[in-house]
Protein backbone atom coordinates (compact mmCIF):
# COMPACT_ATOMS: atom_id res chain seq x y z
CA UNK A 1 0.00 0.00 0.00
CA UNK A 2 1.56 3.25 -1.07
CA UNK A 3 1.17 6.67 0.40
CA UNK A 4 -0.28 8.35 -2.68
CA UNK A 5 -3.31 10.35 -1.63
CA UNK A 6 -5.54 12.75 -3.55
CA UNK A 7 -4.08 15.61 -1.50
CA UNK A 8 -0.57 14.59 -2.53
CA UNK A 9 -1.63 14.48 -6.19
CA UNK A 10 -3.18 17.95 -5.87
CA UNK A 11 0.05 19.20 -4.26
CA UNK A 12 2.11 17.69 -7.09
CA UNK A 13 -0.21 19.38 -9.56
CA UNK A 14 0.39 22.74 -7.87
CA UNK A 15 4.16 22.18 -7.92
CA UNK A 16 4.02 21.26 -11.61
CA UNK A 17 1.66 24.18 -12.30
CA UNK A 18 -0.91 21.80 -13.73
CA UNK A 19 -4.53 22.46 -12.98
CA UNK A 20 -6.21 19.14 -12.16
CA UNK A 21 -9.94 18.55 -11.83
CA UNK A 22 -11.37 15.99 -9.40
CA UNK A 23 -11.63 13.26 -12.04
CA UNK A 24 -7.96 13.69 -12.99
CA UNK A 25 -6.93 13.66 -9.32
CA UNK A 26 -8.81 10.39 -8.81
CA UNK A 27 -7.33 8.82 -11.94
CA UNK A 28 -3.78 9.98 -11.23
CA UNK A 29 -4.00 8.85 -7.60
CA UNK A 30 -4.72 5.31 -8.77
CA UNK A 31 -2.07 5.37 -11.49
CA UNK A 32 0.66 6.81 -9.25
CA UNK A 33 -0.31 4.35 -6.53
CA UNK A 34 0.17 1.46 -8.98
CA UNK A 35 3.53 2.86 -10.13
CA UNK A 36 4.82 3.23 -6.56
CA UNK A 37 3.63 -0.29 -5.69
CA UNK A 38 5.40 -1.76 -8.73
CA UNK A 39 8.62 0.07 -7.90
CA UNK A 40 8.39 -1.35 -4.36
CA UNK A 41 8.01 -4.87 -5.83
CA UNK A 42 11.16 -4.40 -7.90
CA UNK A 43 12.97 -3.24 -4.78
CA UNK A 44 11.92 -6.45 -3.00
CA UNK A 45 13.28 -8.63 -5.81
CA UNK A 46 16.63 -6.84 -6.06
CA UNK A 47 19.15 -8.60 -3.85
CA UNK A 48 22.68 -7.76 -2.80
CA UNK A 49 24.15 -10.64 -4.84
CA UNK A 50 22.61 -9.34 -8.08
CA UNK A 51 24.79 -6.63 -9.63
CA UNK A 52 23.09 -3.43 -10.66
CA UNK A 53 22.87 -2.94 -14.42
CA UNK A 54 21.80 -0.09 -16.61
CA UNK A 55 20.37 -2.39 -19.30
CA UNK A 56 18.80 -5.86 -19.15
CA UNK A 57 20.85 -6.95 -22.16
CA UNK A 58 24.63 -6.55 -22.32
CA UNK A 59 25.58 -3.82 -24.75
CA UNK A 60 28.52 -3.92 -27.12
CA UNK A 61 30.05 -1.31 -29.38
CA UNK A 62 28.78 -1.70 -32.94
CA UNK A 63 31.00 0.94 -34.48
CA UNK A 64 33.97 -0.04 -36.60
CA UNK A 65 37.45 0.90 -35.42
CA UNK A 66 38.41 4.45 -36.28
CA UNK A 67 41.22 4.02 -38.80
CA UNK A 68 42.82 6.53 -41.12
CA UNK A 69 42.05 5.66 -44.73
CA UNK A 70 42.80 7.15 -48.09
CA UNK A 71 41.72 10.75 -48.34
CA UNK A 72 41.05 13.10 -51.21
CA UNK A 73 43.69 15.64 -52.03
CA UNK A 74 42.68 19.27 -51.86
CA UNK A 75 42.62 19.42 -55.65
CA UNK A 76 40.34 16.33 -55.86
CA UNK A 77 37.97 17.77 -53.22
CA UNK A 78 37.72 21.11 -55.04
CA UNK A 79 37.59 19.83 -58.63
CA UNK A 80 33.75 19.90 -58.83
CA UNK A 81 33.19 22.85 -56.50
CA UNK A 82 31.13 25.67 -58.05
CA UNK A 83 33.60 28.22 -56.67
CA UNK A 84 36.91 27.95 -54.86
CA UNK A 85 39.43 30.33 -53.37
CA UNK A 86 42.86 28.75 -53.24
CA UNK A 87 42.45 25.57 -51.21
CA UNK A 88 39.00 26.46 -49.78
CA UNK A 89 35.37 26.33 -50.94
CA UNK A 90 33.89 29.77 -51.62
CA UNK A 91 30.25 30.11 -50.51
CA UNK A 92 27.72 32.90 -50.32
CA UNK A 93 27.85 34.84 -47.06
CA UNK A 94 24.88 34.04 -44.83
CA UNK A 95 25.67 36.47 -42.02
CA UNK A 96 25.60 40.24 -42.25
CA UNK A 97 28.85 42.13 -41.71
CA UNK A 98 27.95 43.05 -38.09
CA UNK A 99 27.16 39.39 -37.23
CA UNK A 100 30.53 38.02 -38.32
From TrEMBL:
Keyword Ligase (UniProt): yes
Annotated Pfam families: GatC (PF02686)
Biological-process GO terms, alphabetical: regulation of translational fidelity; translation
Catalytic activity: L-aspartyl-tRNA(Asn) + L-glutamine + ATP + H2O = L-asparaginyl-tRNA(Asn) + L-glutamate + ADP + phosphate + 2 H(+); L-glutamyl-tRNA(Gln) + L-glutamine + ATP + H2O = L-glutaminyl-tRNA(Gln) + L-glutamate + ADP + phosphate + H(+)
Top-level enzyme category: ligase
EC number annotated for this UniProt entry: 6.3.5.-
Gene3D superfamilies reported in the protein's UniProt record: Glu-tRNAGln amidotransferase C subunit, N-terminal domain
GO molecular function: ATP binding; glutaminyl-tRNA synthase (glutamine-hydrolyzing) activity; transferase activity
Keywords linked to the UniProt accession: ATP-binding, Ligase, Nucleotide-binding, Protein biosynthesis, Transferase
Protein family (similarity comment): Belongs to the GatC family.
The protein's role, per its UniProt record: Allows the formation of correctly charged Asn-tRNA(Asn) or Gln-tRNA(Gln) through the transamidation of misacylated Asp-tRNA(Asn) or Glu-tRNA(Gln) in organisms which lack either or both of asparaginyl-tRNA or glutaminyl-tRNA synthetases. The reaction takes place in the presence of glutamine and ATP through an activated phospho-Asp-tRNA(Asn) or phospho-Glu-tRNA(Gln).
Description of how the protein assembles with itself and partners: Heterotrimer of A, B and C subunits.
NCBIfam families recorded: gatC (TIGR00135)
Protein name: Aspartyl/glutamyl-tRNA(Asn/Gln) amidotransferase subunit C
The organism of origin for this protein: Microbacterium oryzae
